[in-house]
Amino acid sequence: MGSKLKGQIILDKTISPQRAQRTQRFNVKLLKIKRVISHRGHRDTESIVQLNYLSSKIIQAAINVHKELGPGLLESVYQVCMVIELCDRHIMPIFQRRKTL
What is the pTM of this model? Predict the structure, then answer.
């Protein structure tokens, strides 16, 4: 098997040259992706944290509604209960709006 050392691949006799080349190309692409993500991450960190917090509260509310009501009811029933649950968590939902095309 090959092993990695500081982003480079050290070849053993068990890896074919073609496989090593494919692995090396993959590692280079992966390193480029990591660099792009790490530079972008600092700008929007606060908004991402807020979004994660809000989405977790919404998901918890949906799970609670589903646990209480169970499956098989109309969507309108779940919607009313979800609005109540969200309001209890101090999240004001935006109801479905009609849009003109």
Answer: 0.52
Are the C-beta atoms of 80 and 46 separated by less than 8 Å?
A: no
pLDDT in tens, 67-94: 999 999 999 999 999 999 999 999 988 8
CA of 42: how far to CAs of 38, 55, 79, in Å?
A: 7, 20, 36
Do residues 36 and 49 share a domain? no
Q: Are 38 and 48 in contact (CB under 8 A)?
A: no
Phi, psi of 91, deg, nearest 5: -115, 120
Q: Are residues 32 and 53 in the same domain?
A: no
Q: Which domain holds residue 23?
A: 3-40
CB-CB contact of 35 with 17 (8 Å)? no
Same domain, 67 and 82: yes
